[in-house]
């Protein structure tokens, strides 16, 4: 069973950049579909980006062109590089993992309810 720990959140001005990290322990990220989600107060948790064990990536339309997800299998770490940040990006950001419908980290669709393992979250605040 994988455990996830996010870091890298903070407060930035609009237009700024942040890189979030998610370190996995207890199992290798090679076997998992990994994703980033965010949740603002009063809103539902929404998908930001996900990457499967084949390296296939998907982004939410709201972040395309501004955010890059990547995974370092050797470091067991998932990253989220964010630039041109907007106030509407303000949220708690969560890292998540799941083995996918085939059990090998593929066959995932970036939907929150399909992910079984979650980190505690890291806050991102963007001021105008």
Summarize the structure.
The chain is mainly β. Helix content is 0%, strand content 48%. The strands form 2 sheets. Strands 2, 4, 5, 6, 9, 10 and 11 form a 7-stranded mixed β-sheet that branches. A 4-stranded antiparallel β-sheet has the order 1-3-8-7, with no helix packed on it.
SSE map:
Layout: E1 3-7, E2 10-13, E3 18-25, E4 33-39, E5 46-51, E6 57-59, E7 67-72, E8 77-82, E9 91-98, E10 117-118, E11 122-127
Parallel strand pairs: 2-11
Antiparallel strand pairs: 1-3, 3-8, 4-5, 4-9, 5-6, 7-8, 9-10, 9-11
How would you portray this structure in words?
The chain is about 0% helix and about 50% strand. The protein has about 130 residues and is mostly beta strands. Strands 2, 4, 5, 6, 9, 10 and 11 form a 7-stranded mixed β-sheet that branches. A 4-stranded antiparallel β-sheet has the order 1-3-8-7, with no helix packed on it. The protein is globular and about 45 Å long.
């Amino acid at each position: 069973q994988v455990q996830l720990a996010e870091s890298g959140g903070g407060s930035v001005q609009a237009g700024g950049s942040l890189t979030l990290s998610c370190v996995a322990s207890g199992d290798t990220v090679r076997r998992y579909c990994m994703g980033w989600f965010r949740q603002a107060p009063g809103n539902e948790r929404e998908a930001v980006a996900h990457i499967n064990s084949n390296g296939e990536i998907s982004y939410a339309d709201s972040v395309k062109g501004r955010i890059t997800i990547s995974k370092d299998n050797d470091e067991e770490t998932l990253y989220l590089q964010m630039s041109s940040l907007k106030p509407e990006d303000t949220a708690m950001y969560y890292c998540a993992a799941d083995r996918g419908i085939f059990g090998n980290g593929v066959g995932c669709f970036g939907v929150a309810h399909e992910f079984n393992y979650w980190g505690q979250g890291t806050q991102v605040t963007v001021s105008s």
